Amino acid sequence: MNSLLSSLPMLMGAPGGTGAQAASGTGQLVTTIITFGLVFVIFYFLIIRPQNKKQKETKRMLSALKKGDRVVTAGGIRGTIATIKEDIVILKVDGNTKIEFNRSAISNVLQQKAAKVKASEATSDDDDSDDEDTADNTSTESKE
């Protein structure tokens, strides 16, 4: 601690005067401005930019909410979206239990609407059956 305080007068520099002293004063000003600029750039890339990205991602997630999505609220309550109004989301938590939340209280989407998942599985099953039909036709032709 003493070494830090003992070097403080050296960091402050000489008081401004005429001639060479005035030139060193402007040099110190430029150094100070560059230092503050570098600190701002570091803060921008380490703090401000990632926060802006996260806000955009959250806004996009909240605007893409649909009925049937499984979500988690900021309080940790898990449920399925039963109804979505402009700024209100009603979650079906258990059986007939429904809870009303602000849209901004949704923190994460666990699973998109089940119909999309089933549709993608059906598409992949159809693709597999087409491949099997092609393989059957090929083996039948080779036997003849």
The CATH topology name of the domain at 64-112 reads: SH3 type barrels
User: Helix coverage percent of residues?
Assistant: 55-70%
* Strand line-up in the sheet with most strands: 4-3-2-1-5
User: Architecture of the domain at 64-112, CATH level 2?
Assistant: Roll
Measure the end-to-end span.
Answer: 93 Å
User: What's the tally of helices?
Assistant: 4
Mean pLDDT metric: 77
Portion in beta strands: 15-25%
Tell how many strands the DSSP assignment holds: 5
For the structure shown, list the relevant keywords.
SH3 type barrels, five-stranded antiparallel sheet
Strand and helix layout:
Elements lengths: L1 H5 L1 H5 L7 H44 L6 E4 L4 E7 L3 E7 L2 E6 L3 E6 L2 H30 L1
Describe the structure in your own words.
By secondary structure, this protein is an alpha+beta fold. Among the domains are: 15-59; 64-112, SH3 type barrels, CATH 2.30.30. The protein contains four helices and five strands. It has a five-stranded antiparallel sheet with strand order 4-3-2-1-5, covered by helices on one side. Strand 2 and strand 3 form a beta hairpin. It is rod-shaped, with a radius of gyration of 32 Å. The N and C termini lie far apart (93 Å). Residues 127-144 have low confidence and may be disordered.
Provide a short characterization of the protein structure:
58% of the residues lie in helices and 21% in strands.
